Amino acid sequence: MFTFQSRWKEELVCTAPGGSFVLTLTMGVLMAHLPTEAAWAEKAPDWAKDLWPVLHEDLHAWCQSHKAELLIDASAWVD
Q: What is the pLDDT of residues 19-35, one digit of tens each?
């Protein structure tokens, strides 16, 4: 469902049929930052609030294929 595109400012653009948003993607050690499910409900765009399980699964697969780590942290940024 989700596709991912890294940008030069340590940002990961996440796109799905309902729209897109940006997560942090640190580059020193390639690592995607995803809020916890509870924090996601407060930070996510309205259209994506219920999609955390799908996002987590898709992002986990993306991280594995790109040799990146996945950090799940309540303070992770979403824009």
A: 999 999 998 899 999 99
Q: Which residues contact 60 (CB under 8 A, 6 or more apart)?
A: 70
How many whole angstroms separate alpha carbon 32 and alpha carbon 24? 6
pLDDT for the residue 72: 98
Phi-psi region of 76 (alpha: psi -120 to 50; beta: other; left: phi over 0): beta
Domain boundaries, the chain: 3-72
The rounded distance, in Å, linking the Cα atoms of 36 and 19 is 20
All residues at 6 or more sequence positions from 56 whose CB lies less than 8 Å from its CB, including other chains: 34, 37, 72
Helix, strand, coil content of the chain in percent (nearest 5): 35, 35, 30
Residues contacting 9, CB < 8 A, separation 6+: none
